[in-house]
Design brief:
Elements lengths: L7 H20 L8 E6 L13 H10 L2 E6 L14 H10 L4 E3 L12 H14 L5 E4 L8 H13 L3 E4 L12 H9 L5 E4 L1 H5 L23 H8 L3 E4 L2 H9 L2 H10 L4 E2 L12 H8 L4 H16 L4
Parallel strand pairs: 1-2, 2-3, 4-5, 5-6, 6-7, 7-8
Helix pairs in contact: 1-11, 4-5
The structure holds zinc ion (ZN).
The site of zinc ion (ZN) has 5 residues, from loops.
Length: 313
């Protein structure tokens, strides 16, 4: 896209004022933006030492922050969290709040199962028949393109399920430039992959080195990042802006971040990774503080997710 005409200092001052306004609205108990579709939340107990989040607690938090609907992700891999949260819990919560919660399903690809691709697809189809709209959070201690991971993507391809994956230096691992992810995106052009996690979002910058995929860099974004290259090359790549990794990717260099939001507006998704009561969520202030065209804001905050997950807003 063309160079952004906005003067950098003016933009930063403007966004600072807006961010302050956003925080004021939040402090007053009102949401500053939205309505949002949040593509990334969890229920139950996630990390040891944290209070569990109930479905009621999640919906109350959604009400307070203008979140119309939220995707609930199971966590089923030992590397994914301290306590496992099964698909059945996400399905059950969505049955109790069908207008608000969108369940995803997940199976660790190291799970024992019979009948190969057919068997795995049939296991997932049971969840789809009960309302699951996607596969995730796929947060497995294997390389992102490991043969076992590819089997999971095959089953998702059979069922038309989008895959939300986590990438860092332990889960969904890859090298600098994300060549493994590139292979996955090429192998499954009909599967929509939603990228998430430090390794994915730190790859917005061209200076990320192999071995640094668990980091949250705060330096200005260097040109030549893997994400823009992969977004150009693969129409099945989406970005889940949740968690500290997603907000940091935009906030570390607001000028680049704003241009990235506009440039990739058709395939970016608002998300939080809210998983415990009282959790600090940087996305609300961040989004309120960036001056975005109305159509870009609507796409990222809700319309892209509604289209991808086939839900109404
Ligand atoms: Zn998560």
């Amino acid at each position: 896209m063309a160079t952004d005409p906005i003067d950098r200092r003016g933009f930063l001052l403007g966004s600072l004022a807006l961010a302050t306004a956003g925080r004021g609205a939040l402090a007053a108990g009102r949401a500053a933006g939205g309505p949002y579709i949040d593509v990334h939340t969890h229920l139950g107990r996630t990390w040891n030492g944290d209070e569990p989040l109930t479905a009621e607690g999640l919906v109350r938090w959604m009400d307070a922050n203008n979140v119309a609907k939220a995707v609930v992700h199971p966590l089923v891999s030992p590397e994914s969290s301290s306590y496992l949260n099964l698909t059945e819990q996400a399905l059950d919560a969505a049955k109790r709040f069908p207008d608000r919660l969108i369940p995803f399903c997940c199976i660790d690809p190291r799970t024992s199962y019979r009948n190969g691709r057919k068997g795995l697809t049939a296991m997932l189809k049971e969840y789809v028949d009960q309302g699951a709209r996607g596969f995730g959070e796929h947060k497995v201690g294997l390389p992102i393109d490991h043969p076992l991971m590819m089997r999971a993507y095959e089953a998702c391809d059979d069922l038309g399920l989008p895959v939300l994956f986590h990438c860092d230096d332990v889960r969904g691992t890859d090298e600098a430039g994300l060549p493994g992810l590139g292979r996955v995106l090429s192998a499954f052009p009909n599967v929509n992959f939603l990228g998430h996690g430090p390794g994915f979002w730190a790859s917005i910058s061209g200076d990320l080195k192999s071995g640094e995929l668990g980091k949250y860099p705060t330096t200005k974004v260097a040109p030549g990042g893997a994400l823009d290259r992969l977004f150009d090359a693969h129409k099945n790549l989406w970005g889940d802006l949740s968690a500290g990794s997603g907000s940091n990717a935009i906030a570390r260099d607001l000028e680049f971040g704003r241009a990235f939001l506009i440039r990739r507006a058709d395939r970016l998704l608002f998300g939080t990774d809210y998983l415990k009561p009282g959790q600090e969520v940087p996305q609300f202030g961040l989004f309120a503080g960036i001056d975005l065209p109305a159509d870009v804001r609507a796409k990222v905050e809700r319309e892209n997710a509604a289209g991808l997950l086939k839900v109404s807003i």
